[in-house]
Amino acid sequence: IFVLSLGLRKKSSFKRQDIWKTDLRNFENVVIFGVEQMMSQLEEKLVTELSENACVIACRFPLPNWKESLSVGKGIDTVWIYEKRTNICSSIY
């Protein structure tokens, strides 16, 4: 609805897919509703597949080794926003 209100419908698309079966190279923004046990493995996939300018939004659980650009909320309602370009080096080690 927000995208529609801004007139960005033709420039946006939303996909609901299995993140493990999806090649993320064509995505600039990724929203994750994950579980704590998968976040470390997911970091590896994000580093490998996302472009340098990609943005990741994680809901409920943070990426354990990435530094967030912003976090909003508390507890299970927390949302973390990450920019890949600021986390490339720290995720490799």
Describe the structure.
Keywords: Methyltransferase, S-adenosyl-L-methionine, Transferase. This is Protein FAM173B. GO terms for molecular function: protein-lysine N-methyltransferase activity. Belongs to the ANT/ATPSC lysine N-methyltransferase family. This protein has 93 residues and is α+β, with helices and mostly antiparallel strands. The chain has a domain of 63 residues: Rossmann fold, CATH 3.40.50.150. A four-stranded mixed beta sheet has the order 1-2-4-3, with no helix packed on it. Strand 1, helix 2 and strand 2 form a beta-alpha-beta unit.
List the helices and strands and how they pair.
Blueprint: H1 2-5, E1 29-33, H2 39-49, E2 55-59, E3 70-72, E4 79-83, H3 88-92
Parallel strand pairs: 1-2
Antiparallel strand pairs: 2-4, 3-4
Concise summary:
By secondary structure, this protein is an alpha+beta fold. It is 22% helix and 19% strand.
Strand arrangement, major sheet = 1-2-4-3
The residue-averaged pLDDT reads 85
Helix/strand-derived category reads alpha+beta
Stretches where pLDDT falls below 50 for ≥5 residues? 89-93
Order of helices and strands, N to C?
HEHEEEH
- The fold-level CATH name of one domain is Rossmann fold
Question: Whole-number radius of gyration?
Answer: 13 Å
Number of helices: 3
Strand content: 15-25%
Sheet with the most strands, sense and barrel status: 4 strands, mixed
